[in-house]
Amino acid sequence: MPVNLILPPISSPAIDPYKRVPDPLLPFALYVHVEGVAEGELSAIETECNSQLPGDAMVKRASRHDLAGQPLIAAVTDHLINVSARRFDPFYFVAVVDKDWRESGVILVTMNDGRDEAVCHIDQLCVPAQESGISLVNLQIANSEWDELREEYDE
User: Fold this and answer.
1) Does the predicted TM-score (pTM) go above 0.90?
2) Measuring CA to CA, how many Å separate 153 from each of 62, 89, 107, 121?
3) Are 67 and 75 in contact (CB under 8 A)?
């Protein structure tokens, strides 16, 4: 059964304060929504997501990363908990929603797509797993913008 990818259009007000806080370059949370992902495959997903990064791994499994069978909104809920604890980047995370993630890619979720100063809008985009980590780092350090990434991967 496919993962329900429907997300609310507007993020939580819990994200708002982080728009004005200097970012300490926290890692990006990884959530897995598909059934039967063994430890070895989970490690392979992390390795692939971080494969184009020159330094430390930035895509790391969230404490409660196993969301098998749950909709994508479950990752948003967990992400908001992690934001308050400052474990992961508040604006972006990665979700595996297809068992064949090597071919189909992974989902990047932004909690603030940048289109509105007053309101944080949620958006998602599918990218190849090997490009997810570098894409997120470029967003995090403002080397690129969400709309540019969307344009690159939207077909």
Assistant:
1) yes
2) 25, 22, 11, 19
3) yes
CA dist 47 and 147 (Å) reads 26
CB 35 within 8 A of CB 101: no
Q: Across the chain, how many H-helices and E-strands are there?
A: 5, 5
Report the phi/psi class of residue 114: left, alpha or beta, with left for phi > 0 and alpha for psi in -120 to 50: left
Is residue 125 a contact partner of residue 106, using CB atoms and an 8 Å limit?
A: no
For the chain, which ranges sit under pLDDT 70?
Answer: 1, 20-23, 155
Q: What is the DSSP string of 64-118?
A: EEE-TT--THHHHHHHHHHHHHT-S-SSEEEEE--TTHHHH-EEEEES--SS-SS
Distance, in Å, from the CA atom of 2 to the CA atom of 54, rounded to the nearest integer, reads: 34
- Cα–Cα–Cα angle for 16, 19, 151, rounded to 5 degrees: 105
Q: Give yes or no for a contact between 78 and 87, defined as CB atoms under 8 angstroms apart.
A: no
Contact 33, 95 (CB under 8 A): yes
CA distance 61 to 83: 14
